Give the backbone structure.
Amino acid sequence: MSDLQSLVSELHGAIERKQFEAANELLSRSKRALLMQNALIPTPSTPPQLVALARQVLELGALASIRQTDAQLFTRYYQQLQPFYDLERHAGMPGQSSSEVDFSTSQRSKITGLYLLLLLSMGDSANFHTVLEGLVEEASLKGGRVEDDACIKYPVELERNLMEGSYDKVWRETKSERVPSEDFGLFSNVLVGTIRNEIAGCSEKAYPSLPISNAKNLLFLDSEGAVIEFAKERGWILRDGRIYFPVEPEATARSERDILVASGTVIENALGYARELETIV
Amino acid sequence: MPAERRSLRSNNKPDTSSSANGEKANSNSQSSGVKDKAPTTRAAANKAKSASTKKDAKGASNDNMGEDDQSHMNGSKSTENGVNGSEDVEMGEDTAGAPTSSSNASKDRKSNEKMTVVVPPTKGSRSSGKDKEEDVKMEGAEDGDVENTEPEVDPTTKAIQDIKSNFTLLERAVAHFDPRFTLRVLRSISSMRKHLTPEVLAEVIVETYSASSSTASFLLEALGQANAFENAPASSQMEVDSDKKPIPKETLAEVDAYLSILVQIYLFDQREIQKGVQFSTSLIERLRALNRRTLDSLAARVYFYYSLFFEQIAPLPPSPAAAVTTIRQPLLAALRTAVLRKDVDTQATVMTLLLRNYLSTSHISQADLLISHNPFPVAASNNQIARYMFYLGRIRAIQLQYTEAHSHLIGATRKSPVSQVARGFYQASHKLLVVVELLMGDIPDRAVFRQPALERAMHPYLLLSQAVSVADLDAFLNIVNTHSETFRKDGTYTLILRLRQNVIKTGIRMMSLSYSRISLRDICLRLGLDSEESAEYIVAKAIRDGVIEATLDHEHGFMKSKEVGDIYATREPGEAFHERIRACLALHDESVKAMRFPMNQHRLELKSAQEARERERELAKEIQEGDMDDEDAGGDFDAI
């Protein structure tokens, strides 16, 4: 137990100093220690101090993995933390006597917020909402809102703005001073990339053409040079200081093909009806 | 017995089949299983019934009783005589009380069936004797149902009679392997529920089991009537002695399960949750050991109450450590067993219970995994399908798969029973459906809100859809705030929060339709957005998502709508038409599938076809012979 305690404090230091090699080594050692005491998954018989320690180890592991931008490892840590957080959720229920486990050191909202942000940056909105649903339910039982928690509020607002299309808000949110903690800042680049692609996709459809200087502002790029580079990547045509978006293939040609396809389906459908009628009558 | 049976059939034979193929038919039904025999004799009995008068019917049943006597010769004679004597009296009463010949004939038919269907001789005759007794009682009970309003019918005796008459149905279900009888028994529970008392149940148990039976003591203990056997009044003790004890009759496992369900219901109605939890847990253990397909629908019901009990105990569901989580393991085990045994009823029930369980603690991903790994049985009962679709719709809505959610919820609302009892489900599924429709960008039909069953409960949702349809963002936020409690309670709050973007989209669409050109500033003002830039991005997104047909002009800051094309020039009407036809065809297929055909009917048809052929052949032969005769005669005539 004391062994584990020292391991945890060492781990803390290693992650603070960004010595990830050492941290990884420490992590595997402490996880082994947890396994020996059968505390990797909390059971009713696990001593409360050990539960708190195990949770700390896993949380530190999650933070270390996110700083090394290892999404898979982070997801694994998040899943492993779930039973611990379930305990915490249970203790947080109104009318529950406080359990012996110490939750003051828990970084639950931070880890959950990071996980939400990860899902958002990966575009996995189904899972995002699945996780969120649980949180909302829990918050409303306590009589609060999910948005009361800064770490949760951040991804939730981001998602809402993304879905709505207020990309300028997302852009502003990813600016440093709005981010709740530096770990959240790690996702900013990914998110900006995401919205830039979204905006580009929208612009192709919405504008016939756009001056390069305006495009710079729209796409949140730093210089016109960056705009030109970005335009080349997407295959846009640059002429006279304007961007011309590639028009879709000629409408007439498309409609002709449409008719061909359409008549095919019409014939197919009619034959289908005839066959069905035959079987019925 | 077998000799008797054969003679019985051979008597009937001339009725059903011509003598030529009679032997064949007989050997056929002899060689094939027990089930085959019932229809042939039933047909015989049917024909006999049409011919026989009331008196005949009585005579026939007397004949059967004679058989009873014979077969019990090797048993203890005196007691059997007593039983038969009492039966005789009851028979007489019955024929006097219910003078319709049809009921009599049908009873006759039933007893006939029993005679031939049940194979082990002693048990068979025993149960047939009992069957008749129960039949009488059942008819009495049905009469009682009719005269339910009359005060003189003692509810206790009536309840006892009801329960006992259900035993007959269960026995019949086992004998015929027909789940419909079991379902009938389960349906009767709701009407019986009010009359359940420990005394009623104890009396039934005492009369059904012998004192040493472990099932009886198990049931009685749960009722708190452990010493019911000693307490039984002397007179009934006598009856018990004479009736049951000498032959320790095996009670059917179905009867055990049925009584257990009644005990469960009683405990639940009395809010004796803790007791119910214990009782159900040990009951599940007992049931798992049995592997009988006729037990399936009863077992499913047992699991249902089992889970219901657990939902009521201490750490209540929203907490992740709730008591319900402890039954996931047994339920999953039950699901596995049910799948392996092809036990559709239990499988469907346990699936919905598990989904409910997971959703109650908002473990949505687990629920999703359960669905993805377990196909839901198609043959499940309607109510289970409705429940399953509701949960599925909810999960899909949370996962943003609105189209899928919509179709599931439509199914749930349509399959939901509209009776008073299931109103909660009806409302809940409609609420969810309305929200999902709004999320899909549709405005729900006004008629939905006008149904009397829904009107009050759906009022907040009506306001919501009005706000969305006029694209009034302020009003929308207002409604969400004022009714947030209701929405949270209904579990639709998170879904409703997602509606904000839909309100905006609707607004943009309306503006795009009404103006050929509008400045971004105006859009921003009208929608109550924060900035012009936001408005520009939002409109751009709407264009990309195909909500509107328009272009943006960044330099001058306006949105220019495109000419709206003729919808009838597109493929859309054709697709809609195709969709509808497909729905109609699917409906037709479903109804064909849902038709029920009597078992082994085709054999009868085959036989009658064979008969016809036989007759034809004979006719042909006769004609031939006749021709010959004619020729002969003609020849003779010629010769003269």
Observations:
- The mean pLDDT of chain A is 78.
- Chain A touches chain B through 49 residues (CB under 8 Å).
- Residues 267 and 273 of chain A are 10 Å apart (CA to CA).
- DSSP finds 13 helices and three strands in chain A.
